[in-house]
Amino acid sequence: MSDAAFHAPENAGHGRQPSGRAVATFVSVTFGFSWLAWLPLVFSGPTMVMPWNFYLGSMGPALGAIAVTLVLRPDGGFGSWARRTFSVTGIGRALAVVVASILAYVGVGLLVERMASGSLDTMSSIGLTSQLPGASAVLVLLVWVLTFGIGEETGWRGWLMPTLTGHFGYVPASLMVAGTWIAWHLPQFIFNPGFRNMGWAAVGWVIAMVAGSFWLGWLAKIGRWSIVPVVLFHGGFDLLTASDLGPVTLAAASSTLVMVQAAAVVVALAVGRARALRTE
Fold it and tell me: What is the pTM of this model?
């Protein structure tokens, strides 16, 4: 991969340097809406079955992106941004990577499960979660895609990542998005049992989030900054990692493989950049 892979393309919709006002507006709306929606959950204490405002809060990043493009109108405004962000043109390669990745996560997870427990008795419960009691795996996937998939990725990879990449480059942008993404989740350590019970595993979660930022940023990049493949990946990943009723190895296998994929992307980009510099 060439040095160009470190930078957003001209048609990313954010060619000018991002103003502090634009980024501040995005962050303020994103955190303000999400944290306000989650505030009743913070005061009500931990709960396993999440109420409607938990899912409503996932829309904060999307509203942040919409607010910036509607009000501040950077490089073409809302229409230009929306056409690029939700485009289904030129996303075939990214979609193929998404499908292959999810299948690999399931395959490796089930293999480890079989080796660890000697059986696959919980295979039929893949995707099921106590957060959505009684819901089938298909319905759970639909919920994840329509809430945290679209809600998060419209903002993180739909606006913030291409904006920062166009100015700072892929690696710094991935780190900045990761930090913002991690901070956005902080209230869940109060009311979400899955986060509260992490303990020292929270360190691994932070590492996985950084890796996820690199991986999802690259996935959006090869999809011409359309978030369609990224939304589907996010929903599929949540289906596997939030499934507390399915095989316990799926979450660990999925997160580990994302770290491997992110490392491979960074190494490939670094090698490509080094080669480009040598030919100059």
Answer: 0.90
